[in-house]
Amino acid sequence: MTTKQLVAQIIKKKSFLCIGLDVDLAKIPPHLLQEEDPIFAFNKAIIDATHHLCVAYKPNTAFYEAYGIKGWKSLEKTINYLNEKHPEIFTIADAKRGDIGNTSTMYAKAFFEDLAFDSVTVAPYMGKDSVEPFLAFENKHTIMLALTSNEGAFDFQTKTVDGKELYKQVLETSKSWKNSENLMYVVGATKAEYFAEIRKIIPTSFLLVPGVGAQGGNLQDVCKYGLSENIGLLINSSRGIIYASKDENFANSAAEKAKELQTQMEVILNN
Amino acid sequence: MTTKQLVAQIIKKKSFLCIGLDVDLAKIPPHLLQEEDPIFAFNKAIIDATHHLCVAYKPNTAFYEAYGIKGWKSLEKTINYLNEKHPEIFTIADAKRGDIGNTSTMYAKAFFEDLAFDSVTVAPYMGKDSVEPFLAFENKHTIMLALTSNEGAFDFQTKTVDGKELYKQVLETSKSWKNSENLMYVVGATKAEYFAEIRKIIPTSFLLVPGVGAQGGNLQDVCKYGLSENIGLLINSSRGIIYASKDENFANSAAEKAKELQTQMEVILNN
């Protein structure tokens, strides 16, 4: 998918919501556990109920790998379902991968070719030759961790490196990498005050923003400083939407939560 | 596996060799492609021929994920084979994972419980709460990236952070994390001159050292500065061993290459 197509979808749906499909068998409605593939059954119901309210889905691979081959099959069924039924939706493999050159190419093949995601999240620690192999794939997007939403972000990311915080060095440096136009960045909503600074470095890049809702981030604050001329934001909510209820109507409850966020986004986009 | 058991195995085998099982179907002997599971057939042959010469095996997950569910099955068969036939051998899932707390726990379950590896590699960028969930598993080891063997290591890892290189900050900081005795670190052999400095910060921690052989690192240099009182080194070689030949005798060729390294290690351990 091209960035232009993503922006067109945002304008059409009046939404820049991304729904995180982080499926924990201990948290889904108990009646689904009787299904042959409870994880996929859950995802399918959530997708059917919310696809008109969001522009992206983001399964976090940890939740699938934890169930071994069965989990990997659920992930495959989920991405196939999305690509068949809703090809206009932007798909994100939240995998936070990164390795030396040739090995990163194998990860890129896993997520861009074998599973056919539109994008994958990567970690920056190993530098240029660990990320460029992902950037080489046409019409695919590589979403690099910049400033994450957790407490541990303050351990290294905000430390000063040669006069500038590490996350800013990561943003600056990555701009010179080959095919850097295929880069997006993860910036946590819990650090809304940082968005103005970030936009000085990368004025138009799309930012994937976790941390709204359950983690305490505020949508209005993020948009105030983070919106760009091409919108440039994908706001992720996982637990706040998908675990809205545990009863048989869980998918409707999820849709209600998604609608709340979409409505707020519509107001913001209209202003 | 405890660190004590790992050290005992090193002393018994006179080897601190780790063999990287990075299986690329384009590089394995062509006759194996007729097998039902070529990747596992390759790994099994390599393990059968080399298990007495090494103390650890390290499949890099990228090479398995690139083949989707089939690849994940090959990985599962490989770790099961190792745990059944050679339970004394230290196993490393080279996965370079890392995510926020609860999600890291899911990754830890994937590699420590579902696949029953002894250890997993992780990335430090997201800080303490992304790594501590791995450290909570008893008799399991978390191998954190410190200074990697690739060119991109100079993008961020060697940059000065508050008066000290980032990789040193990572080493220092991680020592205060809960259960930090379960930490090992990745330090590339291509940067042998850094080992003396690293040993000042972490005098006894085990270091997983990629980059000997194909990437140009030198075993003697690494050992000169990197050996600790409990040995503290696992030297990894992947391509230099497993792709020694493409003919029907590939496993013997791999064993010869492994034997060369083991013999050098025996000389070093005897001195």
From TrEMBL, chains A, B:
Domain spans labelled Orotidine 5'-phosphate decarboxylase: 16-254
EC number: 4.1.1.23
One example GO MF annotation: orotidine-5'-phosphate decarboxylase activity
Pathway: Pyrimidine metabolism; UMP biosynthesis via de novo pathway; UMP from orotate: step 2/2
Record field: catalytic activity: orotidine 5'-phosphate + H(+) = UMP + CO2
Taxonomic source organism: Tenacibaculum todarodis
GO terms (BP aspect): 'de novo' pyrimidine nucleobase biosynthetic process; 'de novo' UMP biosynthetic process
Enzyme class: lyase
InterPro entries (alphabetical): Aldolase_TIM (IPR013785), OMPdecase_type-2 (IPR011995), OMPdeCOase_dom (IPR001754), RibuloseP-bd_barrel (IPR011060)
Protein name: Orotidine 5'-phosphate decarboxylase
Record's keyword terms, sorted: Decarboxylase, Lyase, Pyrimidine biosynthesis
Gene encoding the protein: pyrF
